[in-house]
Design goal:
Elements: H1 2-18, H2 25-32, H3 34-141, E1 147-149, E2 152-156, H4 164-173, E3 177-178, H5 184-191, E4 200-201, E5 204-209, E6 212-215, E7 251-255
Parallel strand pairs: 4-7
Antiparallel strand pairs: 1-2, 2-7, 3-7, 5-6
Helix pairs in contact: 1-3, 2-3
Amino acid sequence: MYIILIALLISEAALIGSSSSCEEPSELENTCGKYCFKIVKPVLEQTAILQKQVASHEDRQNADTQAKLEDFGKQLTLSHEKVADVQPKFIKIEEQLVGLQSKFDDIQTKYNNITSQLLVLQEKVAQQEGKLQVIERKRKDHPSHFTKIGSKYYYIEDRHKMSWFAAAYECQQRGGHLASIQNEREYGAIKAKLNHNHNYWLDVNDLYKEGLYISLTTGRKAPYLIWYVAQPDNKGCSDKLSSNNDCCKGRRTHQHP
């Protein structure tokens, strides 16, 4: 309402002023009358004050806006700087991730290789278990062939002749091994069960080194040896490789484990 009144008064003052050119205040006072002049003058003065206040407010607002813009610009610049600082770190992290991925791929490859090897080993173990089961079945199929001599069980073959290697293999197929005499008591007990007109194989051999007699069962030096007079002399041997006492023809004596 106050603004509208000011506008009306200003318009009236403008109309009054347009009736004469550049009249002095005294002339305006005489023209408009003291009453009109007294009312318009404060309004004009107040308008000037308001204009100054508006201008001052606009200046302050512009200054504040400018300050805010400058502050925002500084913050934006700082943000760019931080981004610039972080960028190399981010690139380094990416490189580390690539390196970790490469290591993971290597580990995965090794794991796959180990898994494949384990599968092969499992297959071999299964095959060996199958062979052991066959041997066990064969052993169970011929329980009566083993005779208890002393504290052990033996199978004495008196019908077929074969080489030492064949005898060792046959013993293995029956679930045992060539007899391994440990002492004189065992020797005496076994000798009493043998046909003295036959020769029998033991697990003793000197295949590794001539004159060094090793037990095939243990891989160690034979604990007990007894020879006839002038033995060993290599006579009657048929080893085609070295013609020594390793592999003379004869029958076999199986010992059950």
